[in-house]
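hi support,

uploading two proteins for the ticket. first:
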Amino acid sequence: MNADRKRWEARYRHGEGIIPPPAGVLADNAHLLPERGRALDLACGRGGNALFLARRGLAVTAWDFAPAALAPLAEGAAAEGLELTAQARDVLAEPPPAGAFEVIVVANFLDRALAPALAGALAPGGVLFYETFAREGLAEGGPSNPDFLLRPGELLTLFAGLRPLVYRDEGRVGDASRGLRGRARLVALKP
């Protein structure tokens, strides 16, 4: 097992059984979800987004690098009778197939090289929900390595072939005690 996987396994074992709420980009924009379809929660962690999507009637695939995150998610979904498949997967080595999903959710994960595959994995009319940490961060938490932090406006550039429906990247503008700070959000439609 490589060092990254060991680190993530230890992190998920520490808070085992705790399912977080869905990401703000998903919860705040749930009205943009289709009534049916296939959804992918990429880098799902403990699966708050995956459960949210499955409870709304979508057929959900949840992928994470760390298997320790997935067992409680699969058990919880089965107990509720939800259509959810949780799988350990290195998405960099095995990106999602083209046109496979009506919804893709990514939260707290960034690998710029994966952006074209994510856009390509959306079916026509599919919706991407993306939220992660920004370099102009004023909030605590998140990675310290700038490789894993978005530059101002970068989500729009990474997914330029999609139609933006919702975008927030407030940086340091205005009253820093209010608003969405240290994160950027994009909801975008594949034409």
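and the second one:
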Amino acid sequence: MSSFSFKADRPVESYNRSDIFFIISVLLLWGLGIFTLYVCTPYTGERLFGDRYYFVTRQLVWSVVGFVLLVFFSVVKMKFIQKMLPFIVMGSLLLCLMAFIPGIGSNRKGASRWIYVAGLFTIQPSEFAKFAIVLFLANLFYKQRKEDRRDFYYPLAGLFIFVAIIFLQRDFSTGVFIFLVGCVMFFVCGARMTWFLPLLLLAVPAIALMVSIEPYRLNRVIAFLHPEEFAMTSGYQEMASKRAITAGGFWGNGVGEGLVEVFKIPELQTDYVFACWADSMGLLGVTAYFILLLVFAWRGVRIALTCGNAFAAYAAFGCVCMVALQSLLNCAVVCGAAPTTGVPLPFFSSGGSSLVASFCMCGFVINASHTPPDDDYGGVRILDM
């Protein structure tokens, strides 16, 4: 099959303007996320912390940090980001490794996914690793393009290092997700389909082995295949989520104490927050969310395909994939179309690490929308086989 390229068919003067539709979609996703937490978490906040708006308040505080970083990554020069890339990548790896250090790392239910910061709060390094690995791969692909060579072993080795550390944290779903998005970036940046075949032959049995050796992972898969038989154990969240979505009907139950089914979902504020949105806003609200996500993905991919800077184009595509595909994966889990993963819903799930990382990636995409073109760049190479 021949090569296909999307050329940066834009007048030069348009590069000093950001994509307003993409910015609006980001702000709407964030606003709807805050609204959903406001509607659905008062009962949980009161029960766990004695504060009905604990999760909303905490999310707003993290939002301030996120907006600052969004502005930062949307205005700094791409050359500066590339110069800072070694510090970003090594800092992300260091944070991931710090999760294993006693007294710094926080071990919950046998998983070392969090680290304490000044004894005040915790962060999840794997969320920042998503942004770091996208920048890392984009920069390597950019350099190889300039040198007119293709050597995917170095990018693959870097991807494997990140994924291996996250696996060791017992964050299996995040590791697999990062690996899959990385593979999408390889494909977009010119890797042949035949190159993926041996990788696929190794990855499938490896994933199956890692699922089978951990009882809780195997139980999740079995519960997904036979949810009715595990309705009160490992499949309880899935069944409760389905009931909440069904209870929403077409128009939804609105806000307030009418969300009876929602309050039965454990850890509602994190991975299953979309069930609350579906219950309160109904099918109409669910459709509106997916339309908004589609606009976000459309404008983001358009920015990547029309960007005149190779590094910015590759990284912007990876950032959009990270946010959009993670959103679809979370919704699939909540709706019972995929096994429970523990992957949060960007901008909706309570958690500072996920929110800040999402803002960083969106800030980078905004930057790519107004980054001037490189003289030696002719567009994003989508396929080359």
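thanks. also noticed: Confidence is low (pLDDT under 50) at residues 1-9, 377-385.
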